[in-house]
Write a structure and sequence with these properties.
With about 400 residues, the protein is an alpha/beta fold. The protein contains 14 helices and 17 strands. Strands 4-10-9-8-7-5-6 form a seven-stranded mixed β-sheet, sandwiched between helices. It has a four-stranded antiparallel β-sheet with strand order 13-14-17-16, with helices on one face. It has a two-stranded antiparallel ribbon with strand order 1-2. The longest helix has 21 residues. The protein is globular, with a radius of gyration of 22 Å. Bound molecules: 4'-deoxy-4'-aminopyridoxal-5'-phosphate (PMP). 4'-deoxy-4'-aminopyridoxal-5'-phosphate binds next to helix 4.
Length: about 400
């Protein structure tokens, strides 16, 4: 796979920013979109746009076929058993909130346990805090090793017969670690708990097979994997989704409506109240086609190689702190440069046309665990290459010169 050639398919990456060619290293926040996705969305609006499921007319059928076709595409991509297990949502956050509000509020009672890790994104933390408050369940955390990894012994010690839900991110958006989801799932199941996976950072970069992982729920967002914003997916095992109540009520999700009571459609539509994100689903399907044409294994390999190169090159910068394990990580690097505030680092880099993220990355508890208030983060995707890492290193050396006094 040739990252430079692939980059040509991304119109936004062809521009100069602040007088320099854009080096986009904020992919963990959102990825850029290739021409194929932009065209698929605009073709949909130019040729097929209509509301789905209700229209008898031709455009209504085209839109419905496009939307339901996208569901089939997603199901195949993640290895789901059936399209009934694929719920379209606004993103990972909405998907996780749906599991918390529907499944967990019913399943948890006083003294039951919900197991998380301290590295979770706020989207996989706060919904469970809300469940705990509403039901009297208790949150328990699998402790982290000093490099941010988790040990299976600690998973074994944290999950008990009182555990009803285990919810863990597959890949950390800060530490770059890949968590042992399959093993954690096996332990959760041994104790009768369901396993929820935050797949926001794994789905764009690794080959994912939900049936091989055997997780019960899996959430991800289209916008981090070359798709549009506003579309995401909740995968759930059919027998669990079947017994769950919808959390949004209104058009599209009903079967029969009376003045005092109503019934719901079957799966997956009972969870998709209102006009769905039709163009988003079409764009997501096009993004999946694009990624699979390159090959998820090739993308994974490319990013791991780039991450190792970046880790090596960044380690040579005096005064830099790199967070997370030294190996076995995905293509993102979180760092601090001496005492320079990460916002200042990002501002100097931006003047060089280099986009990195600075802040708490929606992981405030993890920042406290790292004993920092914020960090900078460079995150790579299939269109980044070693030249981008070299530009980042040069930019950081300039930043160091600029703030020389703050770096020991
Ligand atoms: N979990 C993780 C690990 C993430 O990185 C993100 C996005 N930063 C989310 C959840 C939330 O995704 P979204 O904002 O698309 O709902």
């Amino acid at each position: 796979m040739n990252a430079r050639e692939l980059r040509e398919q991304f119109p936004i990456l062809q521009q100069q920013v602040n007088g320099h060619p854009l080096v986009y290293l904020d992919n963990a926040a959102t990825s850029q979109k290739p021409r194929a996705v932009l065209d698929a969305v605009s073709r949909y609006y130019e040729f097929s746009n209509s509301n789905v499921h209700r229209g008898v007319h031709t455009l209504g059928s085209r839109a419905t076929d496009a939307y339901e076709g996208a569901r089939e595409r997603v199901a195949r991509f993640i290895g789901a058993g059936s399209t009934q297990e694929i719920i379209f949502t606004r993103g990972t956050t909405t998907a996780l909130n749906l599991v918390a509000a529907s499944y967990a509020r019913e399943a948890c009672g006083e003294g039951d346990e919900i197991v998380l890790t301290p590295m979770e994104h706020h989207s996989n933390l706060i919904p469970w805090q809300q469940v705990a408050k509403a039901t009297g369940a208790v949150l328990r955390y699998i402790p982290l090793q000093s490099d941010g990894t988790i040990r299976i012994e600690d998973v074994e010690a944290t999950i008990t017969d009182r555990t009803k839900v285990v919810s863990v991110m597959y890949v950390s958006n800060v530490l770059g670690v890949i968590n042992p989801i399959k093993e954690i799932t096996e332990i959760a199941h041994r104790h009768g708990a369901v396993m929820v996976v935050d797949g926001a950072q794994s789905t764009p970069h690794l080959k994912v097979d939900v049936r091989e992982l055997d997780c019960d729920f899996y959430a991800f967002s289209g916008h981090k994997m070359c798709g549009p914003t506003g579309i995401g997916v909740l995968y759930g095992k059919k027998h669990l989704l079947e017994r769950m109540e919808p959390v949004e009520f209104g058009g599209e999700m009903i079967d029969h409506v009376d003045l005092y009571d109503s019934t719901w459609k079957e799966l997956p539509w009972k969870f998709e109240g209102g006009t769905p994100i039709i163009a988003g689903a079409v764009g997501l399907a096009a993004a999946i086609d694009f990624l699979e044409e390159i090959g998820m294994d090739a993308i994974d390999q490319h990013e791991k190689t780039l991450a190792a190169y970046a880790f090596d090159r960044l380690s040579t910068i005096e005064g830099i702190s790199l967070y997370g394990p030294t190996s076995g990580r995905v293509g993102l690097i979180t760092f601090n440069l001496g005492d320079v505030h990460p916002h200042d680092v990002a501002t100097v880099l931006d003047a060089e046309g280099i986009a990195v993220r600075a802040g708490h990355h929606c992981c405030q508890p993890l920042m406290r665990w790292l004993e920092v208030t914020a960090t900078a983060r460079a995150s790579f995707y299939l269109y980044n290459d070693e030249a981008d890492v070299d530009a980042l290193v040069d930019g950081l050396l300039k930043t160091k010169e600029f703030f020389g006094h703050a770096i020991g």
